Amino acid sequence: MRRQQRSSQPSAGSGARGGVRRSAFGIGPQPVPAADQPGPAPTLVLDALGKKCPIPIIMLADRIGEVPVGQIIEVLADDPAAKTDLPAWCALKSQEFVRTAPLPAGWSFLVRRSY
């Protein structure tokens, strides 16, 4: 069995600066937007504005299968619980939480489907 060599070079940047994030699921490098740049274009937008916890998570869980692996889902929510619930759900379900961006009323959450 061949042993893979690890590169001693630093990774290609952090999410705050932009760069590339490697997927743990082998789908290759994925671009990560810098904090001051617009995020990747979502394939699906879920409007959970005005809905309380856990509805934004339920909406995401119900519809994530509609987008291809590697594509982005945007969840719009104004419930403060979504700021912690969405990243936690992504970690629990092995999906990639890309970023949160403020909206005039609420937040935009970007999630990349990992499998």
Radius of gyration: 15 Å
**Shape designation:** globular
Helix content: 10-25%
Described by strand count, sense and barrel closure, the largest sheet is:
4 strands, mixed
Mean pLDDT over the residues? 79
Q: Structural class, please?
A: alpha+beta
Please work out how many helical segments DSSP would assign: 2
State the end-to-end CA separation. 27 Å
Strand order of the main beta sheet, please?
A: 3-4-6-5
Portion of residues in beta strands equals: 25-35%
Structural commentary:
Helix content is 17%, strand content 30%. It is an alpha+beta fold and 115 residues long. The strands form two sheets. It has a four-stranded mixed β-sheet with strand order 3-4-6-5, covered by helices on one side. Strands 1-2 form a two-stranded antiparallel sheet. The radius of gyration is 15 Å and the shape is globular. Mean pLDDT is 79; it is low at 1-35.
